[in-house]
Amino acid sequence: MIRVLLVDDQPLIRSGFRALLDLEDDIEVVAEASDGREGLALAKEHLPDVALVDIRMPVVDGIEATRRIAADPALAGVHVVILTNYGFDEYVFDALRAGAAGFLVKDIVPEDFLHAVRVAARGDALLAPSITRKLIDRYVTQPLHAGPVPELEELTAREREAVALVAQGLSNDRIADRMVISPTTAKTHVNRAMAKLRARDRAQLVILAYESGLVTPRNR
């Protein structure tokens, strides 16, 4: 059973999402919160698999709530999915950097919404190639470099290659084709790189790849 926490300051939005989720046999809404502070408390209490968090809320907004969840070892199994009305904007970018597994626009069709919840619950990032390209474009126009990351030295050559391909927006299947390996092996390379670099998901891996200089916009 997939356990979901809803965090949104608009009751109508919460009730709409809950109505969809309650129809599914494999999904259970364990709690609802109207702001990030309450959401964080409920996340600690219920330990959901997925937290659907509105990006703009009173008291504690979605970005700060995401940051606090990502920083708490006890909440390592909670996958935050940001909800937004505005598509991919600077706030979404900041939320991904804070540790969100991905984001959804609130006018998403029900089938895609339910699929996204299941994807997030599996621990896979909701980072479609189109979203990755927008992340890349952000670095093209406004490169941000956090400096050297010592953990990069721990990556094997194949893991570094896999990270570079993730940063280009490729799925595991396409990475497998490019590296001439099986999709399972491609996923293993990506997962091992994420573990070594302490990246929560593919979104974090893409950001770290650019901020560390492992990948640069000019050689994408």
From TrEMBL:
Q: Give all residue intervals belonging to the HTH luxR-type domain.
A: 148-213
Q: Which residues carry this modification: 4-aspartylphosphate?
A: D54
Q: In its keyword annotation, does this UniProt entry include Transcription regulation?
A: yes
Q: Which UniProt keywords apply?
A: DNA-binding, Phosphoprotein, Transcription, Transcription regulation
This protein's name: Response regulator transcription factor
Family annotation (InterPro entries): CheY-like_superfamily, NreC/VraR/RcsB-like_REC, Sig_transdc_resp-reg_C-effctor, Sig_transdc_resp-reg_receiver, Tscrpt_reg_LuxR_C, WalR-like
Q: Which PANTHER family match?
A: TRANSCRIPTIONAL REGULATORY PROTEIN NARL-RELATED, TWO-COMPONENT RESPONSE REGULATOR
Concerning SMART domains, the annotation shows: HTH_LUXR, REC
Report the residue ranges that make up the Response regulatory domain in this protein: 3-121
Superkingdom classification of source: Bacteria
